[in-house]
Every structure is written in structure tokens, then in C-alpha cells.
Amino acid sequence: MAQKEDFQVEKDNIIDYQLRFQKLLISISTKYINADLSNVTSLIESSLEQIGNFVGADRSYVFSYDLKNKTTSNTFEWCKDGIEPEIENLQNIPINYIQQWLDAHTKGEAFYVEDVSLLTDDGEFGLKAILEPQGIKSLIAIPKIKNNELIGFVGFDSVEKIHKYSEDEKNLLFVFASMLVNIIQRKEQETLIEKQKKSEETLLKNIAKQNQQINEYTQMVSHDLKSPILNIHTLISWCKTDLKESLDSQNLNHLDEILFNVEKMDSLIDGILDYSTVDKVDAKDKVLDLNQLVQNIVNNMSIPDHVVVNIQDNLPSIIGNSWRYKLVFKNLIQNAIEYNDKENPKVEVGFENKENFYKFSVKDNGIGIKPGYFDKVFKVFSKLHNNTSSPGIGLSIVKKIITNYKGDIWIESKENIGTTIYFTVLKQN
Q1: How many domains are contained in the chain?
Q2: Per the database entry, which stretches of residues form a coiled coil (predicted)?
Q3: What is the pLDDT of residues 326-349, one digit of tens each?
């Protein structure tokens, strides 16, 4: 019985450790996303300290690979009190000194040495000869990969004692490495933009180039963020399922809160991707049957049973891109449902046939909007209420699409009565 209880205690401790690690990663990820890029260095050093302390490392660091010149250099470092820093000694180190290291990273694998003293002695330039003078007893180095390209690694040294890393720890450290790639990449992008701004002779050309780079960067960062967020969501979901019987309601609620915020972050990233690409889609416009398009949208949405969505008969056909107009109607309908506090929510999709254009409307009987906020709701990340799962980017996407098609969009609303969003689409032969 005692042995069984000891096993359960150990299992509970492992689960608690994993959950705390995941919460720490979510906290760091949030800081990275909202970071002032002028403070990236201190932010990275702070996160190295947090992760280093959490896993019991004595030194944590970031290296960049220069595969063209076959060198690697230490770019960021944190050391525990009493541990000597090595960053100045580790610049432009020939890669052939750490070939085993590089081989593992090239495969996308961690390089892990549980006991440095057990390494083979390969002479004064061998790996053991490099690590032992630094007092390293154990280490783990996780590759940093950007767009399938090896760009560096993040490592953790144990100097005071040997440290054994579990597979779960390794997986979570991979998530941290992906987060570092994102924030460093953002900083590099900002530095590039600042340099471009200093060149007055090519200012106009640079502005256009910067906009393109920012859009590409947004897509790249968003795609890269999806992977760690998915990993975090999966890990927490597993924990919730496996521990459903052993955790109390408060702890289960905490897990639900984490999942809610991870899903919210995922929705935000999807919104950013849509916003950054909606005017970049290289697709020819075609005739769109809005009766079929809008009905398919409603059929594929997860609409609560008590919500009624009415679509006016005989919606017109228009010329446009199917994906763009799906985003328009989906975001407007979703927004009408999201901001509705009535017992019997209603959403109405309609149109009026004008001489040179169609005037569409999406009407609800929801909470309404104050007149002074009509323009604000179309701004990116603007939300009038913080207690919703909406990322606050849907109406920005809608306005961008309608504006690109040379249409108008506006709001009529009364508080506690409802809101109608109108937009126009030009008629084309």
C-alpha cells in the first residue's frame, strides 16, 4: 500500500510539474506576442532565467549558427549566481568542434549529454575538452529551426550537479525554442525596417518594401506560433483527460481557463493571417451565387440552437472572390451572434437592389453599440467587451475587403435594441 501511495505521489508531482511548465510557457508566449521590440534582449534574458530556474539549470543560453562560415556564436546567456558566464569566450566557434552537436540539430533532434565525464576524449579540440573547462556536468541543446532551416539552438547547462531531462521536459523545451525563433525573428525584422527608414533617397521605395515584408513576416510568425500553441493545447487536453478523476473542480476549471485562452490565441493568429492576406490573394474574381454562399456559411457554422438566422430570399449574384466574401458574411454573422444577450437571438441577412450597387445588411437584436464607437469597431484588435472569445479582428477584415472592392460600410445601432451593419457592392457587367 505504501509503495502504491508513493507511486501516486510521484505521478502527481510529475503532472503538477508539467502543468506549471506549460503555464510558464504560456506566460512567456504572451509576453513575446505583446513585446515592445526595443526590449527584446532583456525579455529573452528574462525568459532564459525563468526556464533555467524552472528546470534546475545553472546556465541557459542562445546560440546562432553561421553555416556559411561554419561557425557558431553565443548571443544570449543567463547564469545562476556563482556560475561564471561564458558568452565572451564562445564567439565564432568552429562548428567542427561540436560535430556531434550539429549532427543532432540537423536532424531536428536535441543534443543531450547526461554526464559529460562519460564522453569520449577526442583530444584538445574534442567536445569533452570544450565542455569540461566550463564546469559542465550535464547539458541539453535544442535546435532553433526557421522555415525548415537550422539557425541556432537554445541550451541549458548543469554545473553543480548532473541533471536528467525527461521526454516531457524535452518536448516543452522544443516549444520554448520555437517561441525564441519567433521573437528573435521579430526583432530582426524591426531592425531591418529601422535601417530602411534611415535611407532618405529610397524612402518611398522602402515604404512599399516594408509593407510587403511586414505582411510576409506576420504570416510567417503566425504560422510558426501555431505549432507551439497546438502543442500546448494538446498537452493540456491530455492532462485534463487523464486527470479528470483525480483533480478537483477548481483545478479542472483552471485547465479550462488555460484551454480557453490558448484557443483564443489560436483564433487571434487565424485572424491576423486572414487580415494580412485578404488583399494579397491572387485569384480571379468570378460570378458568386450569394444564396448558396451564405447558406453554406450558416450550415457550416456552430450556431447555438436558440439562435435564429434568417436569410432573405433571392440574394443577388455578384462578381468577386469566393474566399473574401465568405469572410465578409461569416464574420458579420458570427459577430451578430457573439454580441447578443437576448433569450431569443435573431440575425437577419438582407439586401436592397439599388441602381448601381447592391446594399447588403446583417441585422441583429443584440446589445447594440454606442454611436461614439461606430468607427472604433472596424479597427484591428478593437473590442468593446473583453468577456468574449472574439479576437477583435473580424470587422477589420470585413472593412478591408469591402474597401478593396470600392464599396462602403457603416453601422446603425441602438443600445440594448440591436445593430445593423450595411455594406455596398458595385454592380458589374
Answers
A1: 1
A2: 193-220
A3: 989 999 999 899 888 888 999 999
